[in-house]
Amino acid sequence: MRRLLPRPAACLAALALPALLAAQRPGAGAAPGGRPQPPFGPAVGPLDPAPGSAASGYLEVPARGDSATRVPVTVIRGTTPGPTLALVAGTHGAEVAPIVALQRLRPMVAPAQLRGTLVLVHVANLPSYLHRTVYRGPWDQKNLNRVYPGRDDGTVSERIAAVITREVIDKCDYLVDMHAGDGNESLRPYTYWSKLGLDARVDSLALEMALAWGHDHIVIDPDRPKDRAASLYVQNTAQVRGKPAITTETGWLGVPDPEMVARNVDGAMRLLRALGMLPGPVEKVRRPVWIDRTQVVASPATGAWEPAVSRSEYVAEGTVLGRVRDLFGNVVAEVTAPFAGVVLYVIGSPAMSVGEPVAFIGRVGTGPR
Ligand SMILES: [Zn+2]
């Protein structure tokens, strides 16, 4: 295959992803110097299916101080060489729409049609999922999406992160960390795109992934850490290691809403086509709503939260987002919007502690181009 010349970053967004891949990745052709590429994708833990087949199993996370756990994974191997895409669900265990979506997706991707390798991490955080916790794991009270790249001698969240870093992130070429509103969050769908600034190629490809996924609201997140040893987030861990990655938010309030499950499946299929891993038309969001400033609005009091706005609602600066009542029902605080924008999520259940989020507001900006 003809290797195209690299193009300036500003032009990359105008290209379809397959064209970018031909330009940027050696996987579908000869490597620099003409050496042949390894024909097929990586083994993931114990899973190394033959070309044209799939395998499901577990990545083991051994006990150390606290209990052992494991990570359910499927590897679908295509019949022709190509990139490896990792889809990670269940980083937060109550964010279930992506978890159910990957169960639906697994039989939909025929290995005979696939180019490259698709890795499905069905539930990254099994302790959180099984114990129905929000934000943090039940045993160590740590947020799995703040402990990457993890450590093998740490607590269970850190050990899960270490296994996923080694077996999934280090082995993939592209990654999507699939979130939803947590068990208490009423969320409208959106995608995070991080312009990290370490590698223009990686940033541009990640933007193309965001447009391919299909959510029309895209949050531009410029403040993720650049330190490989303290990358904190799943997406960021991939991106600092040179793998284009996005975080998607699709679903709400701890339930697998059918429309949200379908949007997760649809996003994955759109991305597989955009990466040239499945045949079919490539679509991308044509006029996204760019969110260039966000703020998590915190509760000033402990008690019972009573929202006054809904997900996806546009609010003016000073709009009352909701009220906090004490445990006897008296209103003790009113919370207002810090600036005009869209309600990306609002807490939908009463339990509230001082300092915890009540809403996430995004300001509509002009976008990167
Ligand atoms: Zn999450």
How do the strands and helices of this protein lay out in sequence?
Elements: H1 9-12, H2 17-24, E1 54-61, E2 69-77, E3 80-89, H3 96-105, E4 115-121, H4 126-131, H5 156-169, E5 174-179, E6 185-187, E7 190-193, H6 200-213, E8 217-220, H7 234-240, E9 245-249, H8 258-274, E10 289-298, E11 303-307, E12 314-315, E13 320-325, E14 331-336, E15 341-347, E16 351-352, E17 357-364
Helix pairs in contact: 3-8
Walk me through the structure.
By secondary structure, the protein is of the alpha/beta class. The chain folds into 2 domains: 9-274, Zn peptidases (Aminopeptidase, 3-Layer(aba) Sandwich); 290-364, OB fold (Dihydrolipoamide Acetyltransferase, E2P), CATH 2.40.50. The chain has 8 helices and 17 strands. Strands 1, 2, 3, 4, 5, 6, 7, 8, 9, 10, 12, 15 and 17 form a 13-stranded mixed beta sheet that branches. It has a 4-stranded antiparallel beta sheet with strand order 14-13-11-16, with no helix packed on it. Strand 7 (190-193), helix 6 (200-213) and strand 8 form a beta-alpha-beta unit. Helix 3 crosses helix 8 (258-274). Residues 1-15 and 22-37 have low confidence and may be disordered. Residues 91-92, 95, 179, 182 line the site of zinc ion.
